[in-house]
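Deliverable D2.4 — example input (structure tokens):
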């Protein structure tokens, strides 16, 4: 199949839904005793709601929304650090647009821009590098954030800056990795999960074997999935079949895009430029061992933390979440967005209290955008 329409075919979707109904019935899944499947990626959460898949599947299937939105898990203190850098004389601070409205302890980057800081939205770190070329008298800082999907482009930009000797370019690194928080969730005694729908874009970079521990150590099935309706329905069916058969394996539904061993060029760039941080804070989830990346000493000249003396954990600890915000419980699957007392009241996309309502991949934004009355009724 070559076109998106083929992955949205109603006949194919109905056949997959019938298969899900049959297998869910075989394993005894019910509304009161559901099979709990976590979709790790925020893009999957939005697809599930956009196409109403949560209402089409068997009533014994419950989707649990995972922490797969890098903007949503950005700690408030790191937003404060970004603003501190952006307000320094001679700095042009660049970032992806979806990070602009994420609240820090006092302000967002968008509010800091309104107050006079030179903060610019870019589409890639290469745009920031070009700004540095054109403005040699200014310090250009790129806010490097995201999972393994965006990490290679930042690494390649740093390598290019090093080759060209562009000394006025640096990266404020908050890149994070997917496997460690999944391990943390599986180690949580209050977290009950039966299987996973694995992230497609991340896996395009790292391959599928980074998830082997989920099956081998925890006995949970995981299926790496695409983003169209039939992709997700087929992935759910594959998870259910593993549960029915007593298997726990890593399967690749998205093989048309995801290579088994990932992208070697991207992986080489990541290994060259970055090393794991001993620990990194996730908004709403706390510190998770080796879940973040930092720039290696060999590229220290392009590390904004070192250039501006703003290192991770160097400043005062910030509150993890705004008062009344339940983002942490939502990201860890312990609460649905509509059960947060601020949802749709004190927290809306126009006036977000928590990061899950800000990001285009946030679970709360998905509920608000696509859920409507049916989400509010849950």
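Example output (designed residues):
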């Amino acid at each position: 199949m070559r076109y998106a329409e083929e992955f949205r075919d109603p006949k194919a979707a109905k056949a997959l839904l019938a298969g899900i109904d049959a297998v869910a019935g075989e394993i005894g899944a019910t509304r009161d005793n559901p099979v709990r499947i976590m979709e790790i990626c925020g893009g999957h959460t939005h697809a599930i709601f956009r196409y109403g898949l949560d209402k089409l599947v068997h009533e014994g299937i419950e989707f649990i929304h995972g922490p797969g939105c890098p903007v949503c898990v950005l700690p408030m203190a790191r937003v404060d650090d970004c603003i501190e850098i952006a307000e320094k004389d001679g700095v042009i601070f660049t970032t992806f647009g979806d990070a602009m409205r994420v609240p820090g302890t006092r302000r967002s980057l968008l509010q800091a821009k309104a107050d006079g800081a030179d903060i610019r939205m870019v589409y890639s770190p290469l745009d920031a590098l070009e700004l540095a070329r054109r403005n040699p008298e200014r310090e250009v800082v790129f806010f490097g954030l995201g999972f393994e999907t965006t990490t290679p482009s930042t690494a390649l930009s740093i390598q290019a800056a090093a080759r060209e000797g562009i000394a006025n370019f640096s990266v404020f690194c908050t890149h994070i990795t997917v496997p460690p928080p999944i391990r943390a969730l599986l180690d949580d005694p209050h977290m009950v999960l039966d299987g996973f729908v694995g992230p497609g874009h991340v896996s395009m970079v790292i391959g599928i074997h980074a998830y082997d521990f989920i099956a081998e150590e925890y006995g949970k099935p995981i299926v790496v999935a695409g983003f169209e309706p039939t992709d997700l329905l087929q992935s759910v069916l594959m998870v259910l079949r593993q549960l029915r058969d007593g298997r726990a394996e890593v399967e690749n539904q998205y093989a048309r895009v995801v290579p088994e061993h990932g992208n070697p060029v991207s992986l080489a760039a990541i290994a060259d430029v970055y090393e794991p941080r001993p620990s990194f804070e996730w908004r709403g989830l706390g510190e998770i061992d080796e879940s973040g990346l930092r720039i290696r000493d060999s590229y220290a000249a392009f590390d904004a933390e070192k250039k501006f003396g703003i290192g991770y954990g160097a400043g005062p600890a910030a509150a993890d979440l705004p008062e009344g915000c339940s983002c942490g419980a939502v990201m860890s699957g312990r609460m649905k967005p509509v059960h947060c007392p601020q949802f749709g009241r004190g927290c809306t996309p126009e006036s977000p209290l928590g990061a899950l309502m800000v990001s285009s991949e946030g679970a709360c934004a998905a509920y608000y955008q696509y859920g409507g009355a049916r989400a509010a009724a849950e």
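Residues 10-26 form the longest helix (17 residues).
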